Amino acid sequence: MFYALRGSNELSASGWKMANPLAPAPTSDQAFNWVFVVDTMNFSFWPNDDTRQCEVTFRGTTHTGYMTLCAAITRAMEEGVPITDPKFFSQISVEELAHILRSDNETPMPMLQERHQVLTEGGRVLLQHGGSFQSFISRAENDARKMVELIVEKIPSYRDEAVYQGRRISLYKRAQILVADFWAMATAARGATDIVNMDWLTMFADYRVPQALVFLGVLRYSDALMRMLKSGELLHSGDRREVEIRACSIWAVERIKARLDELAREQGAESSGINSVLIDFYLWPYAKQHHREMAHIPIHHTRCVYY
């Protein structure tokens, strides 16, 4: 499936824009700050009650999940709220943020207090390093690996780590997706970027892409794990099962990437040109588009700020 899509817009940096139609035009610091604001609060959208979830209607379309956040931030911009200005969001009150993230119904966006904490924390870091996300990330010299390391070093909420069998496991979902979104936004703005080491990034281990990988037969859950997930048991961040689901998803995508390169070499090319970021950029909207077909595959439930 992926090899047939190589070179297409669906499997390119421009695919990010197709999956993020609410992002502002990539022409200014405001656009890159939008990416920072959204990715800093990009976690835990699944509802406590599956029958009712937070919804945001914007420009005639009602959004759920991650897109409620995108819609709410862009709605605030249109209402004149300086939500992409670090001077504003570093000092925003919980009440102001609650209004920005308001739902159409009685179900609020989950984890408001945590979103407020990480957003104000991130805003303060940007103010200490040039006052914008572009100024902050420029310290990493257009190197994707250095960007991730800088984000994780300076912003505590991005330190997505666990201990597994006595070893530290670094998953860094939001730090990596922030770099990938910056790369995609910069590519959309300039047509090409000089950001190196994009192949160093892995997929962004969340709860939706593992579901797609199981649906496609790339991962297989044990019967015991499947029963546990279907029961709705809440897993805490760092639980062995939670770490295994996320880490195996990362490794599965690395295997897909390696196989794509093998197929390309068989055809005389050096590589497929498809990195793990592009695979993730395709799989996440794929999971959304096929959510009815994969409804029998449960997502794992972990309330945390990491994904």
UniProtKB/TrEMBL annotation:
Answer yes or no on keyword Hydrolase.
Answer: yes
Q: Could you tell me which Pfam families the record lists for this protein?
A: Q_salvage
Q: Which domain of life is it from?
A: Eukaryota
Write out the GO biological process terms.
Answer: tRNA modification
Molecular function, one GO term: hydrolase activity
Enzyme class at the top of the EC tree: hydrolase
Q: Does the keyword Transcription apply?
A: no
Q: What is its EC number?
A: 3.2.2.-
Q: Which UniProt keywords apply?
A: Hydrolase
Enzymatic reactions: queuosine 5'-phosphate + H2O = queuine + D-ribose 5-phosphate
User: So what does this one do?
Assistant: Catalyzes the hydrolysis of queuosine 5'-phosphate, releasing the nucleobase queuine (q). Is required for salvage of queuine from exogenous queuosine (Q) that is imported and then converted to queuosine 5'-phosphate intracellularly.
Task: Return the similarity comment.
Answer: Belongs to the QNG1 protein family.
Name of the protein in question: Queuosine 5'-phosphate N-glycosylase/hydrolase
> Which species is this record about?
Hippocampus comes
Q: From which lineage does this chain's organism come?
A: Eukaryota, Metazoa, Chordata, Craniata, Vertebrata
